[in-house]
Write a structure and sequence with these properties.
Helix content of chain B: over 70%
Number of strands of chain A: 0
CATH superfamily of chain B: MetI-like
Structural class of chain B: mainly alpha
Largest sheet of chain A: none
Distance between the termini of chain B: 26 Å
Shape of chain A: flat
Oligomer: heterodimer
Number of domains of chain A: 2
CATH superfamily of the largest domain in chain A: MetI-like
Radius of gyration of chain B: 24 Å
CATH architecture of the largest domain in chain A: Orthogonal Bundle
CATH topology of the largest domain in chain A: MetI-like fold
CATH topology of chain B: MetI-like fold
Helix content of chain A: over 70%
Largest sheet of chain B: 2 strands, parallel
Strand content of chain A: under 5%
Number of strands of chain B: 2
Structural class of chain A: mainly alpha
Shape of chain B: flat
Largest interface: A-B, 98 and 95 residues
């Protein structure tokens, strides 16, 4: 049977299993991928050595993957025919897309880590930028500001978001509930800078001050971005609570509000906490609204209600955008700020996943 | 609301119940009020700019619309380019995670892509200008040398890489996780029976996806792309940090004169603006708000209609 196939590449005479003949063995794609990467890395390495430039690893990996796509298509076409070849080609394209998305992630994490560690020292976390020109200084004022502004935003957003979610799941019927659901969805798409502009427009009219900058305005802008996230995630979690629990509670004569407070919310508290943590992680890195309404400063400011307040993302932007005559220390601080920011966000994400994994009620799957 | 049940079998109205349910309604209405307030206050602060003498605006344009025009164009053009890059990659990743990757690692891979969404935009900006721009500059030079006849690469090449194409690449990286997450959910909702039927008829995996998965998810993919577009339209810091802006309308991808975007322009000029300039910036912000509101609403309507139709969720 194997002898009669049109493709001469399938050579092994001992192969008798008709189900596997005419198919590439499983190791072939992986070997091809490895080989293509190796070839391109060697080529790029030779180019880099001859022209005395650095080895461009991402480009080599990317072009190697493209080479793999072509090689795999040709091999599969010769061995398996056009339908299988198309299938394999798309499979390899899909893998390529995944690798393509990983390259910027790895490159970003790598650069932030290598550049950020230079100033990742005690001074960075114990000093502000007051009276600092050139080297030295730190981001204590920015970190404090970020924690205060985000904390206030959380204090505003969590009750509003949670109560809205309770309304949507437990009470909401008809037009109002549908309108809220729809506009919460729409709100998730508000550009962050528009939230900042709103906070500015609102407070500058309220206090009749066209240059108004203060921390609480930043909290309002951030809660505009945070509330929809809290509502969506809490709503999903409340919906997961089995109706039997509510009915059992009603049957015992427990009022509805106590049922919600003592049965529904405690059952879903792990999921809600996860959602809230992720929402905080989302807004803690927001730059644009704080740039507009909280402004930037070099000094400590513990008062949300008055004066400019620095935050960590704005600190990173400011160190990059307005360096002094000696650029390097400013850039180093920017990278270290970026590293700190990423660490905070990653930590929040990790905490959220841990809470979800450890404390979630064991529902039957 | 719920207390207005049928009269004869009326449950006892407890005050605590009333207070609790009212407070939830108030919270819900507060959200609607906030959204309305965003529109109202932006409009209120924009009106002075629309009425003012345009020569007072930055760069003294002939009218307010001449000021907004290049910015609006740049916003849409950069977001469109980003979507063009991100869309095929995101669909590929979503298919990879939902239908190609081994079951055991698929969820982990999803987390990895979500990590991209967790990186703050200012860090992306820093990466874009310090790492990506120098990396792509030689490539742009090559493009202009060899494809200079093509209108998109016309003119002289930017020596710094601070072009709209670089911005679009970074924006694409930022919206990939959004489009991926949404389309992944949709692909996973494909009825398994459809997939198995296709495979049982001898379809390859690609043919199965063409026959069962993609037709089922078409509406969802469109709305995922639109939500990604909405995000790209409003993204600020990357544009503010990477682009070297100029008040022009130009499709050229690799030149040194690039149209800025509304959001980027606000971030760069707002801290130093005063008087009527502030109102002008807020007015541009209002236009951005309107654009994203329309795009997001349409996308949500598509998603919701599909949800009702499929019975999923």
């Amino acid at each position: 049977m194997t002898a009669t196939t049109a493709t001469p590449v399938v050579a092994p005479s001992g192969m008798t299993n008709s189900l596997t003949t005419g198919r590439l063995p499983r190791w072939v794609p992986w070997t091809l991928l490895g080989a293509s990467w190796a070839v391109l890395l060697v080529v790029f390495g030779m180019v880099a050595a001859s022209s005395d430039t650095e080895l461009n690893v991402p480009a080599a990996i990317f072009l190697g993957t493209v080479l793999f796509d072509v090689l795999l298509f040709v091999t599969a076409y010769l061995v398996e025919g056009i339908r299988q070849a198309r299938d394999r080609f798309v499979t390899s394209l899909v893998v390529t897309a995944f690798i393509l998305a990983l390259l910027p992630l790895i490159s970003l994490l790598f650069t932030v880590l290598t550049n950020g560690l230079a100033r990742f020292d005690l001074a960075f976390f114990s000093q502000s930028m007051r009276n600092v020109v050139g080297e030295g200084g730190g981001a204590l004022h920015a970190i404090t500001g970020t924690l205060l502004i985000t904390g206030m935003a959380a204090i505003i957003s969590i009750p509003v978001g949670l109560l809205t979610a309770v309304y949507l799941v437990e009470y909401g019927r008809g037009g109002l509930a549908r309108a809220i659901t729809f506009f919460v969805d729409v709100m998730t798409g508000i550009p962050s800078i528009v939230a900042g502009l709103f906070a500015f427009a609102f407070f500058s009219l309220l206090f009749d001050d066209e240059g108004i900058r203060f921390g609480f305005g930043g909290s309002v802008a951030l809660s505009l971005l945070m509330i929809p996230v809290v509502v969506r995630s809490s709503e999903e979690m409340l919906k997961l609570v089995p109706n039997e629990l509510r009915e059992a509670s009603y049957a015992l004569g427990v009022p509805k509000w106590l049922t919600i407070l003592k049965i529904v919310i405690p059952t879903s508290i792990a999921g809600i906490t996860t959602g809230v943590t992720l929402a905080i992680a989302r807004v803690i890195g927001e730059t644009a609204p704080l740039l507009l309404i909280a402004g930037f400063t070099t000094s400590m400011n513990y008062d949300l209600g008055a004066d400019r307040m620095m935050s960590l993302p704005v600190f990173v932007f400011n160190q990059y955008a307005n360096p002094g005559s000696n650029v390097d220390p400013y850039l180093e601080r920017a990278w270290t700020g970026a590293l700190t920011l990423i660490l905070i966000v990653m930590a929040l994400n990790l905490i959220a996943r841990l809470i979800a994994n450890i404390f979630s009620p064991k529902l039957g799957r | 609301m719920t207390t207005t049940a049928t009269p004869p079998l009326r449950a006892k109205v407890r005050r605590a119940d009333r207070v609790f349910s009212t407070s939830t309604v108030v919270a819900g209405i507060l959200i609607l009020v906030a959204l309305a307030a965003v529109a109202v206050f932006l409009i209120a602060q924009s009106i002075p700019a629309l009425l003012a003498d345009p020569s007072e605006l930055k760069g003294s344009p002939s009218s307010f619309w001449a000021y907004v025009g290049p910015l609006a164009f740049g916003t849409v053009w950069a977001a469109f380019l980003a979507l063009l890059i991100a869309f095929p990659i995101s669909i590929g990743i979503a298919l990879f995670i939902s239908h190609y990757a081994p079951r055991r690692v698929a969820q982990g891979l999803g987390y990895v892509i979500d990590l991209l969404a967790a990186v703050p935009s200012v860090v992306f900006g820093l990466w874009g200008i310090k790492v990506l721009a120098p990396m792509v500059t030689p490539f742009y030079g090559w493009l202009v040398d060899n494809f200079g006849w093509f209108p998109l690469f016309a003119g002289s090449v930017s020596g710094t890489g601070k072009t709209i194409l670089t911005v679009a690449i970074v924006l694409a990286v930022m919206i990939i996780p959004i489009i991926t997450a949404l389309s992944r959910e949709i692909f996973l909702q494909t009825p398994v029976l459809h997939e198995e039927a296709a495979l049982a008829l001898g379809a390859t995996r690609l043919e199965m996806i063409q026959m069962a998965v993609l037709p089922f998810g078409r509406a969802g993919i469109v709305s995922a792309a639109m939500l990604g577009l909405g995000r790209a339209l409003g993204e600020t810091m990357v544009v503010a940090m990477v682009l070297s802006p100029a008040p022009v309308i130009s499709f050229v991808l690799t030149g040194s004169a690039n149209p800025s975007t509304i959001a980027g322009n606000i971030a760069l000029n707002f801290p130093e603006a005063h008087g009527i300039e502030i109102n002008a910036l807020i007015a541009t912000g209002l236009i951005l708000f309107a654009i994203t509101l329309v795009i997001n609403s349409v996308a949500r309507v598509i998603v919701n209609r599909r949800k009702a139709f499929s019975g999923a969720n």
